[in-house]
Write a sequence for this structure.
């Protein structure tokens, strides 16, 4: 199963409830997490996701590190494969 | 004159904290066709399903099959004479051998069943899972059958610790050492006798499938489920339907390898690489089977249709993300019903 397919099939609600139909796992995420998941589904690169976060939210500090931490969480919960990384360009 | 309703007998009314599947099967059949006459077949006067007045009007006690086939058959004949059974859906592991023995006689009486053959029934026994794995291509954890404590002392050469010590019918105890395994071995032998099955532990998440086979290698339908809440006995108290094609492929492999006829529950562990390992196959509907009806694939009704020789009307899809959440409630019962179950062994409301 490719990471793209898996992400594509996630059920994402506007309230931040996430359901993985493959594993039955459910998660909750905040608005920034939701934005990242939608962005990954659209195939956006990591820099594009960071830029989108800066545009949409009043964020300060090291956004890239936060995004990387979120990716680590996705890997940890099996939402994306262990070797997953977003495109750099 | 009204047409005689389709009459279906269902066993396993023990909807306790370790529930029999009967009440779930009855609910699914009731959902599919409110006109079916459902007949409860109970082994205990206090089986909770007996007192589910909104689901059942007719209930009969059955003697335990261990009391002998003659008594068991005689009771079934009597029940048939009273209600005219068209189909019986047995739902308990321990009674299935008796129903397999009686299947030809039931057929002579005009009572249909949807049972595996004796050979199919044997193929999925816990002690034969390794062979089934080879035949079907399904991954199976290292498994060994032991009859003596001496065999257990050497089993780690084939099945490394930690391992599960299992009875042939029920129960599994995780053992991390020979001492723990010995304790579990004697406990299983005292309760279920030998042989004892030893199975390697697979780390991961448990998934279950309820499936229905057509007896010719085909899969009529299957619903995958992930347990969300477990009781202290390891029984699912809540669960959610999932749809991983790799999971449902296991059901197809099993049907194809065994030509299984009837319902079954396939228990699997999903490892960290997403691979499924077969833990157990139960030769009947699971207690959570009402979820299949709730998700749009009513497998108990499909089983009745198949038993009657009809083409099952069940679709090929179900709603992913449908949950079941069990509830523990106190039913209020009439003493007349209890009294009749104890004295005459039957209730007709």
């Amino acid at each position: 199963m490719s990471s793209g397919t898996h992400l594509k099939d996630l059920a994402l609600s506007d309230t931040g409830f996430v359901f993985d139909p493959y594993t039955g796992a459910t998660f909750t995420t905040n608005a920034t997490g939701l934005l990242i998941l939608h962005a990954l589904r659209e195939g956006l690169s990591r820099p594009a996701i960071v830029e989108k976060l800066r545009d949409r939210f009043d964020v300060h500090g090291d956004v890239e590190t936060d995004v990387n931490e979120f990716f680590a969480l996705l890997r940890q919960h099996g939402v994306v494969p262990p070797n997953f990384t977003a495109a750099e360009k | 004159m009204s047409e005689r309703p389709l009459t279906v007998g269902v066993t396993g009314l023990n909807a306790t904290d370790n529930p029999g599947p009967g009440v779930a099967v009855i609910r699914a059949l009731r959902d599919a066709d409110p006109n079916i006459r459902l007949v409860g077949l109970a082994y205990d006067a206090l089986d909770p399903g007996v007192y589910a007045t909104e689901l059942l009007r007719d209930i009969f006690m059955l003697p335990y099959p261990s009391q002998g086939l003659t008594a068991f058959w005689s009771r079934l004949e009597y029940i048939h004479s009273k209600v005219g059974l068209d189909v019986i859906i047995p739902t308990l592991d321990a009674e299935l051998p008796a129903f397999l023995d009686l299947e030809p006689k039931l057929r002579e009486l005009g009572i249909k069943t949807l049972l595996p053959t004796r050979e199919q029934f044997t193929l999925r026994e816990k002690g034969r899972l390794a062979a089934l794995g080879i035949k079907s291509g399904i991954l199976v954890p290292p498994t060994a059958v032991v009859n003596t404590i001496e065999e257990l002392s050497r089993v780690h050469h084939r099945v490394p610790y930690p391992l599960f010590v299992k009875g042939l019918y029920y129960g599994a105890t995780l053992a991390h050492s020979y001492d723990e395994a010995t304790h579990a071995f004697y406990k299983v032998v005292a309760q279920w006798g030998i042989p004892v099955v030893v199975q390697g532990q697979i780390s991961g998440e448990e998934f279950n499938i309820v499936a229905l086979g057509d007896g010719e290698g085909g899969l009529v339908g299957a619903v995958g489920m992930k347990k969300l809440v477990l009781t202290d006995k390891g029984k699912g108290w809540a669960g959610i339907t999932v749809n991983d094609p790799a999971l449902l492929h296991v059901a197809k492999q099993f049907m194809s390898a065994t030509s299984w006829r009837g319902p079954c529950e396939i228990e699997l562990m999903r490892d960290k690489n997403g691979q499924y390992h077969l833990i157990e196959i139960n030769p009947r509907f699971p207690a959570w089977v009402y979820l299949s009806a709730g998700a749009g694939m009513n497998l108990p009704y499909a089983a009745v249709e198949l038993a009657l020789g009809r083409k099952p009307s069940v679709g090929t899809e179900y709603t992913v993300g449908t949950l079941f959440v069990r509830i523990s409630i106190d039913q209020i019962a009439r003493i007349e019903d209890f009294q009749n179950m104890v004295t005459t062994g039957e209730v007709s409301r």
